[in-house]
Amino acid sequence: MDTKLPQSVEIYFRAVNDHDSQTLADCFAEEAVVHDEGKVHRGLAAIKEWNETTSKKYALSLEVISASQENGDTVVTALASGNFEGSPAAIDFYFVVTNQKITALRCG
């Protein structure tokens, strides 16, 4: 891997694989924003709900393949497996981390 992941990003991937929405939400700042599948999720409650819905819908698991820094973002490519067409598929995750919390995430 090219880049050491910030702790909150490492925990994010563990929480996804453990289907632990509370731990996942704890990785994010209060006013964080997630962009996924054409939708925007703002704030911890919305992010927790997004993760719970996604976890149930796709039975998602993620395996980190690579990571790098790009324009201040941590960019992680992960192999996503689950109940969706094209599984498994490589997906890019663009994280903005401030004060050890994820403040923004764009998936895809």
CATH architecture term: Roll
Q: What is the beta-strand fraction?
A: over 45%
SSE run? HHEEHEEEE
Terminal residue distance: 19 Å
Q: Under the CATH scheme, which class?
A: Alpha Beta
Q: Report the oligomer.
A: single chain
Shape: globular
CATH topology: Nuclear Transport Factor 2, Chain: A
Report the mean per-residue pLDDT as an integer: 94
Unreliable stretches: none
Helix count, DSSP H or I runs of 4 or more residues: 3
Helix content: 25-40%
Counting helices, strands and paired strands, the structural category is alpha+beta
Largest sheet: number of strands, sense, barrel closure = 6 strands, mixed
The number of E-state strands comes to 6
Output the radius of gyration: 13 Å
Query: What number of domains?
Result: 1
Widest sheet: strand ordering: 2-1-6-5-4-3
How would you sum up this structure, described in words?
By secondary structure, the chain is of the alpha+beta class. The chain has one domain: Nuclear Transport Factor 2, Chain: A. It contains three helices and six strands. A six-stranded mixed β-sheet has the order 2-1-6-5-4-3. A hairpin with a 7-residue loop joins strand 4 (73-81) and strand 5 (89-98). It is globular, with a radius of gyration of 13 Å. It starts with 6 loop residues before the first helix and ends with a strand.
